[in-house]
Write a structure and sequence with these properties.
By secondary structure, the chain is α/β, with parallel strands linked by helices. The protein has four helices and five strands, in the order αβαβαββαβ.
Length: 146
Protein backbone atom coordinates (compact mmCIF):
# COMPACT_ATOMS: atom_id res chain seq x y z
CA UNK A 1 0.00 0.00 0.00
CA UNK A 2 2.94 2.37 0.50
CA UNK A 3 3.51 2.60 -3.27
CA UNK A 4 -0.07 3.82 -3.64
CA UNK A 5 0.48 6.40 -0.94
CA UNK A 6 3.67 7.65 -2.57
CA UNK A 7 1.82 8.01 -5.86
CA UNK A 8 -1.06 9.75 -4.15
CA UNK A 9 1.41 12.15 -2.48
CA UNK A 10 2.74 13.06 -5.93
CA UNK A 11 -0.76 13.58 -7.31
CA UNK A 12 -1.72 15.75 -4.35
CA UNK A 13 1.43 17.89 -4.74
CA UNK A 14 0.45 18.36 -8.39
CA UNK A 15 -3.02 19.55 -7.28
CA UNK A 16 -4.74 16.60 -8.93
CA UNK A 17 -8.01 15.83 -7.18
CA UNK A 18 -8.65 12.24 -6.14
CA UNK A 19 -11.96 10.67 -5.17
CA UNK A 20 -12.89 7.23 -3.86
CA UNK A 21 -14.96 4.87 -6.00
CA UNK A 22 -17.95 3.08 -4.44
CA UNK A 23 -20.37 0.93 -6.49
CA UNK A 24 -24.06 0.92 -5.50
CA UNK A 25 -25.51 -1.55 -8.05
CA UNK A 26 -28.36 0.84 -8.87
CA UNK A 27 -29.51 1.06 -5.27
CA UNK A 28 -29.65 -2.70 -4.67
CA UNK A 29 -26.28 -3.15 -2.99
CA UNK A 30 -26.69 -3.59 0.78
CA UNK A 31 -26.36 -0.26 2.57
CA UNK A 32 -23.92 -1.70 5.11
CA UNK A 33 -21.60 -2.86 2.30
CA UNK A 34 -21.66 0.57 0.64
CA UNK A 35 -20.96 2.30 3.96
CA UNK A 36 -18.13 -0.15 4.64
CA UNK A 37 -16.50 0.88 1.35
CA UNK A 38 -16.89 4.55 2.25
CA UNK A 39 -15.38 3.87 5.68
CA UNK A 40 -12.47 2.04 4.05
CA UNK A 41 -11.72 4.99 1.80
CA UNK A 42 -11.89 7.28 4.81
CA UNK A 43 -9.67 5.10 7.00
CA UNK A 44 -7.02 4.33 4.39
CA UNK A 45 -6.95 7.39 2.15
CA UNK A 46 -8.58 10.40 3.85
CA UNK A 47 -5.40 12.52 3.70
CA UNK A 48 -5.40 12.21 -0.10
CA UNK A 49 -8.97 11.96 -1.33
CA UNK A 50 -11.44 14.79 -1.26
CA UNK A 51 -14.66 13.02 -2.11
CA UNK A 52 -16.57 9.93 -3.11
CA UNK A 53 -17.96 8.83 -6.47
CA UNK A 54 -21.05 6.67 -6.10
CA UNK A 55 -21.25 4.56 -9.25
CA UNK A 56 -24.14 2.74 -10.87
CA UNK A 57 -26.65 5.13 -9.30
CA UNK A 58 -30.32 4.45 -9.97
CA UNK A 59 -32.23 7.31 -11.55
CA UNK A 60 -35.52 5.89 -10.25
CA UNK A 61 -37.23 8.28 -7.80
CA UNK A 62 -37.97 5.29 -5.55
CA UNK A 63 -34.22 4.95 -4.88
CA UNK A 64 -33.96 8.51 -3.54
CA UNK A 65 -34.08 7.51 0.17
CA UNK A 66 -31.19 5.06 -0.36
CA UNK A 67 -29.02 7.79 -1.87
CA UNK A 68 -30.18 10.41 0.63
CA UNK A 69 -28.88 8.18 3.42
CA UNK A 70 -25.54 7.78 1.62
CA UNK A 71 -25.33 11.52 0.99
CA UNK A 72 -25.83 12.22 4.69
CA UNK A 73 -23.32 9.52 5.65
CA UNK A 74 -20.61 10.90 3.35
CA UNK A 75 -21.18 14.53 4.38
CA UNK A 76 -20.57 13.61 8.04
CA UNK A 77 -16.86 13.41 7.30
CA UNK A 78 -15.20 16.76 6.63
CA UNK A 79 -12.45 15.27 4.44
CA UNK A 80 -14.23 12.81 2.15
CA UNK A 81 -17.52 14.70 2.38
CA UNK A 82 -16.20 17.69 0.42
CA UNK A 83 -17.29 16.28 -2.93
CA UNK A 84 -20.04 13.83 -3.84
CA UNK A 85 -20.26 12.59 -7.41
CA UNK A 86 -23.26 10.56 -8.54
CA UNK A 87 -22.77 8.53 -11.70
CA UNK A 88 -26.23 7.95 -13.08
CA UNK A 89 -25.09 7.73 -16.69
CA UNK A 90 -28.39 9.35 -17.67
CA UNK A 91 -30.55 12.30 -16.71
CA UNK A 92 -31.89 11.79 -13.22
CA UNK A 93 -35.13 12.57 -11.52
CA UNK A 94 -34.78 16.19 -10.40
CA UNK A 95 -34.78 15.17 -6.72
CA UNK A 96 -31.29 13.69 -7.15
CA UNK A 97 -29.77 17.08 -7.96
CA UNK A 98 -29.73 18.04 -4.27
CA UNK A 99 -27.68 14.94 -3.40
CA UNK A 100 -24.56 15.72 -5.42
CA UNK A 101 -21.94 18.29 -6.19
CA UNK A 102 -21.44 16.61 -9.56
CA UNK A 103 -23.82 14.55 -11.69
CA UNK A 104 -22.47 12.22 -14.37
CA UNK A 105 -25.09 12.19 -17.10
CA UNK A 106 -23.19 10.17 -19.70
CA UNK A 107 -21.04 7.11 -19.06
CA UNK A 108 -20.09 5.17 -22.15
CA UNK A 109 -17.70 4.75 -25.03
CA UNK A 110 -16.06 7.64 -26.80
CA UNK A 111 -17.76 6.65 -30.05
CA UNK A 112 -21.18 6.82 -28.37
CA UNK A 113 -20.30 10.13 -26.71
CA UNK A 114 -19.28 11.80 -29.98
CA UNK A 115 -22.72 11.15 -31.45
CA UNK A 116 -24.63 11.66 -28.20
CA UNK A 117 -27.46 14.16 -28.07
CA UNK A 118 -29.59 14.15 -24.93
CA UNK A 119 -33.31 13.81 -25.53
CA UNK A 120 -35.10 17.19 -25.49
CA UNK A 121 -35.96 18.30 -21.99
CA UNK A 122 -33.92 15.53 -20.36
CA UNK A 123 -31.18 17.72 -18.90
CA UNK A 124 -31.86 18.61 -15.28
CA UNK A 125 -31.79 22.21 -14.20
CA UNK A 126 -28.80 22.74 -12.00
CA UNK A 127 -29.73 23.10 -8.35
CA UNK A 128 -27.23 22.08 -5.70
CA UNK A 129 -25.18 20.16 -8.27
CA UNK A 130 -22.55 22.56 -9.52
CA UNK A 131 -21.25 20.46 -12.37
CA UNK A 132 -22.36 17.99 -14.98
CA UNK A 133 -19.82 15.45 -16.19
CA UNK A 134 -19.56 13.03 -19.06
CA UNK A 135 -17.30 10.00 -18.77
CA UNK A 136 -16.26 8.65 -22.14
CA UNK A 137 -13.97 5.62 -22.26
CA UNK A 138 -11.31 5.46 -24.96
CA UNK A 139 -11.57 3.15 -27.90
CA UNK A 140 -9.82 -0.13 -27.27
CA UNK A 141 -6.60 -0.54 -29.19
CA UNK A 142 -6.87 -2.98 -32.01
CA UNK A 143 -4.28 -5.72 -31.92
CA UNK A 144 -3.26 -8.04 -34.67
CA UNK A 145 -2.34 -11.53 -33.67
CA UNK A 146 0.18 -13.02 -36.02
Amino acid sequence: MSDYRLGMDELKRANIAMIGYVPTNFGTRPMDDVKADIDKWNADYAPWIGGILLDDVSSNPGAFPYYQELHNYIRQNPQIGKLIVLNLGTSPDRSFIALADVLVLFDGSYDDWVGYTPPPGSQPRIGAASQLWSMARPRPRRCRIR
